[in-house]
Amino acid sequence: MTTSMTGFAAHSINLDHASVNIDLRSVNQRYLELHFRLADELRPLEPQLRELINERLARGKVECRIGITPLPLATLDNGLNPAILERLANWQSDVLQRLPESPRLSVSDILRWPGMVQTAVLSPDTLNDAALAGVLATLDELVASRQREGAKLKQHILDRLGAAEAQVASLQPLLPALVAAQRDKLAERLRDALGEAGHERLAQEIALVAQKADVDEELSRLTTHFSEVRRVLDQQGAIGKRLDFLMQELHREANTLGAKSVAVETSRVSLELKVLVEQMREQVQNIE
After folding, report:
1. Are residues 99 and 137 in the same domain?
2. Which long-range contacts (CB under 8 A, 24 or more apart) does 258-266 make?
3. Do 112 and 156 form a contact (C-beta atoms < 8 A)?
4. Is 91 in the same domain as 51?
């Protein structure tokens, strides 16, 4: 299945006293590049998380965010931290002795003080297990998201590929007549310029023009590359780099076709092919 490098997934796991919130988002990147924003309690998990993501994703710039949010029930009936409360009282007393006009701490100031409201403590093992399980579930959602996006990209490429094949198919029956018309036109000009004495020169020039105007090889290679693009799109795993190479080859052949053009029809097909290949290449940049 064709997979995009762009995707997003979020998952939450509610424990007794806290919620573990996981976000995974990815964008296109030449290689797999991982970034982590973890709650302090979960930083030791980064090597394991990196290994889990490496097993599922091959390319893309991936950001993993995991936060811990205390649930409302976690703060009920736990009271205030007496040690911090006493410390604040002593500090306020010292400040007021030296600066009597200083304002006193309000109740909201005290409650917002870090660590003042005691919350239930979750064991590290519980947090780690929840985070790992959450990342696995979120990875499933992210992969599914990237596959849905990849299916759309594949269809976009196939539509343009079909249009490119139609352009080549429309040109092939015209080639013999186009080459013959160009040869007759050149022969007439050379006869006018050289007369009958230039018969040998005439034959040489016509041979050169025929060789230059022969684009059968380019059309054959284009057809081969079209078939290869279809084959690669049906493969499993990371196919983006292979498709990118094929887009370069298609663009090269379209350029050569235009350079060897001896008729407006060939030039038009060359231009149309380059537009279609560029449209495909833009989408290939997002494929894993």
Report:
1. no
2. 260/212, 260/213, 260/214, 260/215, 260/218, 261/215, 262/178, 262/179, 262/182, 262/209, 262/212, 262/213, 263/178, 263/181, 263/182, 265/171, 265/174, 265/178, 266/171, 266/178, 266/215
3. no
4. no
Domain containing 102 equals 79-111
Q: Domain check: are 158 and 234 in the same one? A: yes
The answer to whether residue 121 sits within a structural domain is: no
Same domain, 134 and 159: no
**Single-letter code of the amino acid located at 5:** M
Q: What digits encode the pLDDT tens for the residues 103-144?
A: 898 888 888 887 777 665 667 888 899 999 999 999 999 999
In a domain, 118, yes or no: no
Name the residue with tokens 């005439």: 202
Q: What are phi and psi of 123, to 5 degrees?
A: -70, 145
Neighbours of 155 (CB within 10 A): 13
| Residue 121 pLDDT | 63
